[in-house]
Amino acid sequence: MADQYDILIVGAGPAGCMLAREAGRTRRVLLVEARACRLPAGSGKGKNCGGLLNEEAQKALASFGIALPAKVLESPQVFAIRAIDFDNGLERFYPKKYINIDREAFDRFLLERALARPGVELADRTVVRSIEPAGDHVTVQLKHEDGTATQVQAECLVGADGAASMVRRTLETRLSGPDEPAYPIRRYAALQQWFEVEEELPYYAAFFDQKVTDYYSWMIPKRGRLILGSALPEGEGARKRFERLKEEVIRAGFPIDSKPVAEAGCLMLRPYGPESVNLGKGRVFLAGEAAGLISPSSEEGISYAIRSGHALGRLLADAGPSQELRRAYEKAIRGMSLDLIVKNLKSKIMYQPLPRGLVFRTGALSIRRQ
Ligand SMILES: Cc1cc2nc3c(=O)[nH]c(=O)nc-3n(C[C@H](O)[C@H](O)[C@H](O)COP(=O)(O)OP(=O)(O)OC[C@H]3O[C@@H](n4cnc5c(N)ncnc54)[C@H](O)[C@@H]3O)c2cc1C
């Protein structure tokens, strides 16, 4: 006999944890996570992420009544971004109100909040292998790190499993019918390298160079290290492009050498707009980046993850899956979908050398360094 839950959530990232916390008020929830979540803090098993909380994420946390403990904050906290346009040979400083966080500690903090609900259980070091919706439930096969497998049934399933979501893939391939809409989305390879530095950089940096990527690259100071990252078009000589970026950044005077102390790569999504957003089907829902909710102009995804997870969790706490609930979820996401339209338009200016050069030349919104 399979274990029974009201809700099975795949992925204990920000979307999954916010959802579990809300739904766990009234429902029995199983949170399934591929990673090991019970390792000691600082064991270095964090996500490949820049770890910057933008103002939208800060506002969302404020509206949910969540304050961050000091252990989540990262040094240094900086207030400006140095934007370098290698295409046009221009640069500007802009004020930026990010909070620099330790991403591993942030995810851990959200997970602790979710597990504080008696209705929420965690199965970590466990992956979802298959999903089978049938009648009034969904059957899921789980594979644990020790090689054992179990079967679980739930009234509904939520894919909060990030950019490479197997739940979304299953919905869009095996479970889709001939009249299903297409959900086009662009895919990038995100590569980051960490460098030891003697002095903290007092700003973030953003780099624009069409020869490296049609998107952007960044540098973030993080506790005695600098992260150099780039969102690179998939499969088009990504490594060579990254090396070119590194050479440019060194030439521009950034204090890194050619030997990183760590490196990580993963998939990164870039939605076209609302048409890229898939919120699921029937008893299967999608939230966070798995739903295609991530900024197409900055790659910021934490605010979308916490807002969509929170909204769906609230709805599922009060009712089972139904057409009305799906409509209510779509309504809750509408503001985020509109946001994707605005950010796509912004992308068309930021990521084309000509309009970007014009904006840089005006100096609008920039700050003068003393
Ligand atoms: C290089 C890089 C830098 C970024 N920097 C920033 C930034 O500075 N600020 C920002 O706001 N956003 C940033 N983002 C985006 C942000 O990291 C994501 O949008 C955000 O983490 C999405 O949250 P989520 O909960 O939807 O998914 P995730 O945080 O990706 O969580 C999904 C979870 O599901 C688990 N999982 C996946 N598949 C399975 C499976 N089959 N079974 C069980 N578990 C599974 C994964 O282990 C993971 O823990 C960055 C992304 C990248 C790639």
At a glance:
With 370 residues, the protein is of the alpha/beta class. It is built from eight helices and 17 strands.
Task: Describe the protein's topology.
Blueprint: E1 3-10, H1 14-23, E2 29-32, E3 52-53, H2 55-63, E4 80-85, E5 90-95, E6 99-100, H3 103-115, E7 120-123, E8 126-134, E9 137-144, E10 149-159, H4 166-172, E11 185-196, E12 204-208, E13 217-222, E14 225-233, H5 238-251, E15 262-271, E16 280-281, E17 284-286, H6 302-318, H7 323-350, H8 353-362
Parallel strand pairs: 1-2, 1-10, 2-7, 4-12, 10-17
Antiparallel strand pairs: 3-6, 4-5, 8-9, 9-10, 11-14, 11-15, 12-13, 13-14, 16-17
Helix pairs in contact: 1-3, 1-6, 2-6, 6-7
The structure holds flavin-adenine dinucleotide.
Structure characterization notes:
This protein is of the alpha/beta class and 370 residues long. The chain has a single domain (3-359), classed as FAD/NAD(P)-binding domain (3-Layer(bba) Sandwich), CATH 3.50.50. The protein has helices at residues 14-23, 55-63, 103-115, 166-172, 238-251, 302-318, 323-350, 353-362, and strands at residues 3-10, 29-32, 52-53, 80-85, 90-95, 99-100, 120-123, 126-134, 137-144, 149-159, 185-196, 204-208, 217-222, 225-233, 262-271, 280-281, 284-286. The strands form three sheets. Strands 1, 2, 7, 8, 9, 10, 16 and 17 form an eight-stranded mixed beta sheet that branches. Strands 5-4-12-13-14-11-15 form a seven-stranded mixed beta sheet, with helices on both faces. Flavin-adenine dinucleotide binds at residues 10-16, 32-35, 47-52, 57, 127-128, 160-162, 166, 190, 192, 229, 266, 268, 288-290, 294, 299-302, 305.
